[in-house]
């Protein structure tokens, strides 16, 4: 990796972030001299990675033109497997969404069936010139991931996925570089990328759906921990004396008391006990979706269940807010769709339990589900494509697709994870 590649990557990633979009701004923000900035911008313009737009507002002297990540050069595919659905999005390198598809899917159908569903859905999106422009793929899954190897590791709700060579299979099928990460991580990137300047560079995303996960962005970069296990909020113990066994095998996990599957379990018990006529009518197909419908219809038991889940999540989150001191917390996943019924108890518990200095300017808000999932995975792919270790290699060959083809032909790895 040369200094030229490092500075080119820095320029491209800074423009993508929106923190600096003119040559003078780039120089001030990065600390690089004007000559270096001019050289790197010219290089990126020649490579078709940047385009010049309208003049920036004049501050005296000759106005600078606003720089944009070029549209139409490459495209990336972002995919997120939820426990009960599959979301795909295709974006340009600037993050603009070009195609999108969401379909129901049970991730416990196993890796082979899940890949077949993914490939079929992707084929419907990647038609014509989009297929030729594909430069990278990223898939998020609801479980721990060894990011360096691109494999799930002992995921509690994904039977048959442990050690599955997911990245290898993706690269073989799409013939481009691929990455695999935890779904909460890519969702954090997706939510944060939309309003990075306002959100700040220290962000948490809590995904409260069938399971409960956490994506953590520290100083503008995803934090995965030493082995990729960072953010496994759902399997922290909140009630050691609980008799509810979690799907991970432990008792008293947050997920076993506040996850979507736990709410469906408790809703069924309430319906059988005659506590809710609304839930009784839906007993044959009672899931967390019916509990959320109950909240929307004012069913007291449904509201009680979601409120209690919010309190439990908020209590655990309060500790993280004191320890990590984020500027923004995003709420995502199925339970976040309950709106204030879930959000207000979360906010209340964080305010009560965290240090005042950590909460006096803290923003807790719902993430845009369409942006957070497939687009978030696409964002991760773009970040990796522009990483200095990778950027220099594929630029020499013209595109990531061309570089990947040479790698496969020579069987010699070109990229560092």
From TrEMBL:
Gene3D superfamilies: 3.30.420.40, Winged helix-like DNA-binding domain superfamily/Winged helix DNA-binding domain (1.10.10.10). It comes from the Bacteria. Pfam families: ROK. Belongs to the ROK (NagC/XylR) family. This is ROK family protein.
């Amino acid at each position: 990796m040369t200094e030229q590649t490092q500075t080119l990557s820095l320029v491209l990633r800074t423009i993508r972030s929106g923190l600096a979009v003119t040559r003078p701004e780039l120089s001030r923000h990065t600390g690089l001299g004007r000559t270096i900035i001019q050289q790197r911008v010219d290089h990126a313009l020649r490579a078709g990675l940047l385009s010049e737009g309208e003049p920036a507002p004049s501050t005296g002297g000759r106005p600078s033109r606003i720089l944009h990540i070029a549209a139409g050069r490459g495209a990336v595919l972002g995919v997120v497997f939820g426990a009960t659905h599959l979301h795909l999005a295709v974006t340009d390198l600037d993050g603009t969404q070009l195609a999108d598809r969401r379909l129901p899917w049970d991730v416990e159908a196993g890796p082979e069936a899940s890949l077949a569903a993914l490939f079929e859905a992707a084929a419907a999106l990647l038609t014509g010139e989009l297929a030729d422009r594909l430069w990278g793929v990223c898939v998020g899954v609801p479980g721990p991931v060894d990011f360096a190897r691109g494999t799930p590791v002992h995921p509690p709700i994904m039977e048959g996925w442990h050690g599955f060579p997911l990245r290898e299979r993706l690269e073989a099928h799409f013939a481009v570089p691929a990455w695999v990460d935890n779904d909460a991580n890519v969702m954090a990137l997706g939510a944060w990328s939309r309003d990075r300047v306002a959100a700040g560079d220290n962000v948490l995303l809590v995904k409260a759906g069938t399971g409960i996960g956490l994506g953590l962005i520290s100083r503008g970069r995803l934090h995965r921990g030493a082995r990729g296990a960072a953010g496994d909020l759902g399997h922290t113990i909140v009630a050691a004396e609980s008799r509810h066994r979690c799907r991970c095998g432990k008792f008293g996990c947050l997920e076993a008391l506040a996850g979507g599957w736990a709410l469906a379990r408790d809703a069924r018990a309430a319906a059988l006990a005659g506590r809710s006529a609304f839930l009784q009518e839906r007993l044959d197909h009672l899931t967390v979706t019916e509990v959320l419908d109950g909240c929307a219809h004012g069913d007291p038991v449904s509201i009680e269940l979601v409120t209690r889940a919010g309190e439990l999540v908020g209590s655990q989150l309060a500790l993280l807010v004191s320890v990590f001191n984020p500027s923004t917390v995003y709420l995502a996943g199925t339970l976040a769709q309950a709106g204030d019924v879930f959000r207000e108890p979360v906010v209340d518990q964080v305010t009560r339990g965290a240090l005042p200095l950590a909460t006096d300017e803290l923003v807790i808000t719902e993430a845009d589900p369409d942006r957070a999932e497939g687009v978030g995975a696409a964002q991760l792919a773009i970040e990796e494509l522009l990483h200095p270790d990778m950027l220099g290699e594929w630029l020499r060959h013209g595109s990531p697709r061309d570089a990947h083809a040479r790698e496969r032909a020579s069987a010699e790895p070109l990229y560092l994870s």
